[in-house]
């Protein structure tokens, strides 16, 4: 049997995970494309693939835009059977899709066709999704719309933060990759088309979408904090309407003691800050107060 030629393109932790599994399963790519760190400032949880590729003597190339002519020519010269595009915010154009003899494989941490699109981890937390799947699928010119190669379940717990969900989804991805690599080696890939009637779409989220509305429910505020936490920019508010205050971790507490307005500080200690919400108290215990010098009980987050 002829050797199966693959290429890996990526820029984040899930990209590195795929490279690790390829190496573990003796399924070495012909070439690894790693986003150049000079262009990675806006990429949450950026990971360079160059060190691991070099360690295992796998050829690699740094890139700014994967669709640049020189990258396309490199891929064409290899004549790959499969191209894995994992953890890349850039859309791969038709020029590259057409170069993979068997197809371009993508990854999405949702139960496709549900929740196609952007910011899948934060959106699922905000939406209160508890049972999800990671999906490997063939990339086409649509948005996460290609045939599904396989899926693996993972759970989003009630108090999980973004990093917790990322960890759970990647554990599921490891399991799925082992099965998929074996199926590729044995010629048993059996991809199934997605039902377009079941498709839903997640639109992009920006840092501004992490702004807390203190008149919202305590549960929704807590979801926003968990969804926006590291490696994302963080949920935020303004102290006295002036200085930005980022909340990384918090918990919900029953309020049977304090009367005040949503966003008003009820208690401040060395360990936490209690903030009044419309239906309870948000206890904030990990935060970045920026240039705020003094926090005073009774003052407000706006």
Strand and helix map with partners:
Layout: E1 6-10, H1 13-24, E2 31-35, H2 50-55, E3 60-63, H3 69-78, E4 82-86, H4 94-97, E5 103-108, E6 116-117, H5 120-127, E7 131-138, E8 148-155, H6 162-185, E9 201-202, H7 218-228, E10 235-239, E11 243-253, E12 265-268, E13 273-277, E14 280-288
Parallel strand pairs: 1-2, 1-4, 2-3, 4-5, 6-9
Antiparallel strand pairs: 5-7, 7-8, 10-11, 11-14, 12-13, 13-14
Helix pairs in contact: 1-6, 5-7
Compose a concise summary of this entry.
Helix content is 25%, strand content 26%.
Explain how this protein is built.
By secondary structure, the chain is α/β, with parallel strands linked by helices. Helix content is 25%, strand content 26%. The chain is elongated, with a radius of gyration of 22 Å. The model has no long low-confidence stretch (mean pLDDT 96).
